[in-house]
Specification:
Layout (H helix, E strand, L loop, with lengths): L5 H11 L2 H4 L3 E5 L7 E7 L5 E9 H13 L14 E7 L4 E6 L6 E2 L2 H22 L14 E7 L5 E7 L14 H8 L3 E18 L7 E9 L5 E7 L7 H6 L1 H12 L2 E7 L2 H13 L3 E4 L4 H8 L3
Parallel strand pairs: 1-7, 9-12, 12-13
Antiparallel strand pairs: 1-2, 2-3, 3-4, 4-5, 5-6, 7-8, 9-10, 10-11
Amino acid sequence: MERETPEQIGKRIEALGLWDAVLPYNWAVKPSGVAFPYFCSAMKGSPQPVKMRLLMLEGWGTFHDYIRFGVDRNAGFYSTPAEMPHYELVVLSDGGVMLFRHDPGYVPRTLSGDAERDLVARILWESYGVMLRLESDRELPMKYAGERAMFARVESRDGKWSDAPLPIPDPRPVVEKVSFRKEDVAKAKDLPLDQSLAVELDFRIMPNIVTRESRPRTAYQLTAVDAASGARTMLERVSAGPDFGLKEMWESMPPRVLANFVKQGRVPGEVKVLTQRMFRLLRPLCLELPVRLSLHDSLPTLEKAFSAAP
């Protein structure tokens, strides 16, 4: 029998009506001929008209990052699960389904080619089977928890699928490296320190701004404003790519801030930020300059700068 399309299987999954039962669990699917397993996790959709998302996360490293992100949104370098390498089934409020490929730094794209569509169909079909079994066995995804292993559907070389434990490896440590050009540090130390100047600063993804390429990349914006006047003192945009990933992009943020101080001709007495990630990455700057770094729940003046047209 000819295998159903990923869209047809997606509609079968939606018709089960088991999203609430599935939400607390994750499971793995390991197709034959693929180097790594895919980890399946359901998420409630946003924004409208998205009802649900089923993420098929690529490999242990991505899955560990996903779990870490769920515990602490400021851990590592991902701003959203949408940046993580994965396939995704999107279920719309009207019952329609769509399928996408996500890669860090790029705008999601539709599935490309028979091989990719076949891979996603295999993952979805096994996930459909897992969800069917969940109707009568709600503990199925925890079957191998006592063995420190995840529940997985594994395909053998002859094309047969079976339940199997997938031993959970230790996550790789997240190593952050922030360094500054000696010339910029020396120049900044010779600048006046303006204790009366407080700067509000953030670096974030800009979903509505993309590059004009055959495969568009997402833009990230670094913006700073004078906390008192609201005047914008910095606006830089950058995109990640194959040779300049999210990690490198975030690690390049503090040196960009330092270079901006040099360009402005003065060092602010205080830098205000909104997230633990910004605070953590900018700490090395405070070892070089006598700048006070403070963390805030909201910075309305900065938000206005981000929402204003460039």
